[in-house]
Design a protein that fits this description.
The complex is a heterodimer.
Chain A lengths: L2 H9 L4 H8 L3 H16 L14 H22 L4 H11 L8 H14 L2 H12 L5 E4 L15 E5 L4 E5 L7 E2 L10 E10 L2 E11 L12 E5 L12 E5 L2 E4 L9 E2 L5 E2 L9 H31 L1 E4 L6 E3 L4 H36 L6 H29 L11 H8 L9 H14 L1
Parallel strand pairs in A: 1-5, 2-5
Antiparallel strand pairs in A: 2-3, 3-9, 4-8, 5-6, 7-8, 10-11, 12-13
Helix pairs in contact in A: 2-3, 3-5, 4-5, 6-7, 6-8, 8-9, 8-10, 8-11, 9-10, 10-11, 10-12
Chain B lengths: L1 H5 L26 H28 L4 H6 L2 H26 L4 H21 L1 H5 L6 H18 L3 H6 L5 H4 L10 H10 L10 H12 L1
Classes of the chains: A alpha+beta, B mainly alpha.
Chain lengths: 439, 214
Amino acid sequence: MNPDLAQERRRATFDPEQVTSLLYRGPENVRKRRYLQNAAIQDQVLRGSKPWAFQSRVEQYETALQMFIYMMKKLDEMGVTDPLERMYYQEAGAPHYYNPMALHTGMFIPSIEKQGTKEQKERWLPMARSLQLIGTYAQTEMGHGTFIRGLETTASYDPSNQEFVLNSPTVTSMKFWPGGLGKTSNCCLVMAQLITQGKKRGIHLFFVQIRDLKTHRHMPGVESGDIGPKFGFNSNDNGYLKLSNVRIPRENMLMRYSKVLEDGTYVPPTNQRIGYGTMVFVRAHIVTNSARGLSKACVIAIRYSAVRRQTEVSPGGPEAQIIDYQTQQYKLFPLLATAYAMYFTGRYAEDYYEQIASEIEAGNLESLNQLHAVCAGLKAFSTWACTAGIETCRLCCGGHGYSHASGIPKLYTYYTPGCTYEGENNVMMLQVARFLMKI
Amino acid sequence: YPDIKRGGPIHEFVQYLGADLTQKSCMTEEVALGCLLKAFQHRAARLLSDAAARIENLVRSGKSRQEAWDASTVALTWAAKAYCHTFVVRTFSQIVSDAAVDKSTKDVLTALCKLYAIDGIIENLGEFIEDGFFSPHQVSFLKNKLADLLAEIRPNAVALVDAFDYPDKTLDSCLGRYDGQVYPALYEYAKNSPFNEQEVLDSYHKFIKPAQTE
């Protein structure tokens, strides 16, 4: 043990275990979290690979795929079903590898659960859970992001054979960015403009098989692939998708809330925003995720600041720990406070989401707009704070912060996409403003 | 906003937005958490009021409501950020005050909460003093408290990051190791570089050597 760090721990005036319990909602959860993390850390299968930063992109993808498939099966064997507990295990098993199946478990399955009919759930969910179906959530288009009503992909209903015909009519309408779409997935939920009886009916979700379930080759009319290397998330095959007259049966539209009858009659949902449920769910969890990113950067920068010594304070004296410089404290301690603030706010946002989601399930949509606005605002606020904070932590580590050895560049590229995915932050803030003005 | 102005029933998240904007800060040298929260609420209410007034003025001058909105999005974004900031300060202080922990732990968390709030004010000071809500004297209380809090948190900084309870493998960092053995870890990490697999790289023979002999 480094003597400076040992001394720091001796001089603390409080019991960190109490704070750990508060952060993770009680000692029982802390115990479970540690058990799962240790199980992953001790697992020989998850140990072998060379350091992340020395791998090529293909190696990163293959390592992540192998690890996450292994971990999914292992977690199923252990009977761990809680998403948070699964995350703890995966976070320790493959730190900062983006899971190529993250959207399969995080958006594809939850969307079917929340927006599918009973029959649809019975048909697709068992196959999805056993990885026969590997899906993603194809919403964003090359030329269209947060403004969902502007999506160009069309799903035109043909009553003569009761099918939807899906098309990407322009280059800008091609689906672009969805995680796992490029090479991993064999199906996806496509957000498209529904056209029936000659009228546009707004955007809806459609289940589209894009690859053969046996050969993994493309289905007719489907073209898809990986979009190439990115700033981070390189273990993930974010993809593009072009649909040319792809026919799917009427039963493949997710019809829990809005429906298309056999003759093409459209039955609208009771609330137009009900279809955004998955996005709101993800945004609610982004707040805690941001806290996680910022807090990790703070752990690295603060421990290092206690170990690192720089410049004698008085001539001939010992070099001071850099954490003793007030400027270093001024950069780091407000970020430490922010990490705690975001953890607690994230917990609140998740609880609030669960509360309102239950009301929505029971048919009460009164608080949906409120939930939508709160989650949008907190998502933007927390991701901005996280990204800017990690960068400051990097600067607090001097030159070593620039090396991947510090772990900070990987944290930065892992968390900064939060500012633009699931809604660009300025747009999110304007949604909050609209809510405030309307209320 | 019209509901707030009329004093109609509004959700608890936004009730404070209808507060009296002529009020001044209650801040004293002690820098109480309650006064900090009120400052955030005042700022959010004022910026929302400013944005609404701007939209109304533009509508009165002949613009459509949509045009007025589009010409006010910067002011609206300021208001929305202030609203979110208030939400976070309120949640943080609420959870700390309700936390079932011993006094020494609560004191540390309260110091962190105050630091978060004070830093938020100082970093956005213009928005808090534009209408004279804080006097210059009160601003100096905040600056002094900020320095005091940095010193107060200093002995607990490492324990506070330990409390996040991240195993070393999760951090994947030579600098952030629990045992602090930073420099040996950096040395071991460097040895993993593929550049170090050969003593002399092929590129030396391909590019450097010919350049040296030309």
